[in-house]
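Sample entry (227 residues):
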Amino acid sequence: MLGVPLTGKETIAQPHYIDKLQILLVKFMTSILTPKTRKLPDQAIAAKIFHWINIISLFIMLTSGLQIYNANPVFGGRSGLHLPPIFTLGGWLAGGRHWHFAAMWFFSLNLLWYGMYVLITRRWRHRFVGVNDIKALQKAQNSKRLIYAWHRIVYTAIIPILLLALFTGIGMYKPAQFPWIVDTFGSWEALRIVHFSSVPMVILFAVVHSLLGRKAGGTELTESMFW
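Predicted structure, serialized as tokens:
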């Protein structure tokens, strides 16, 4: 075997295999040494505007609503629990009402135009809960898929809560024009309690929504909603 001379084809093939090996080695080293860049999430400008207006208007409605509450607390009447002025906006009852209802219009119009945007662009297919999300809660073993399912469920659940807050707010804003709203809840006091109870529900939603968003896509996802 040692005495058999190599043919010309064999002598050329050896450097060819060595070149292939070198190329593979370079690719392997490059894949190790070069840091992998992950594509950062990016949201539509409409979503960013929607979130900013929501945050600002909800903050104004919350603080001005607490000012209205202080004028006549829901629980315990005028002698009930009063909140420190640092948490309120408006200075007095009329001032609180002006701020509250001004922010309500911004909030309502913001929900309206964004709802139309979601329908037109069909973003609702990726934002709201579907049959596959319910099935995922029952069968999925992938933790990431479960987070997505819960995120869509929470995102969908806030819609009736916001509509309830707006519905009861209109009844309190114009009780003479919409007496049937007051009658729906039985009394003015019951209407106030339902409207007031929407505040902790919205706050709870904001916290859970933010935590699930971070679990689903990290801080980059939540920051992309605003910047």
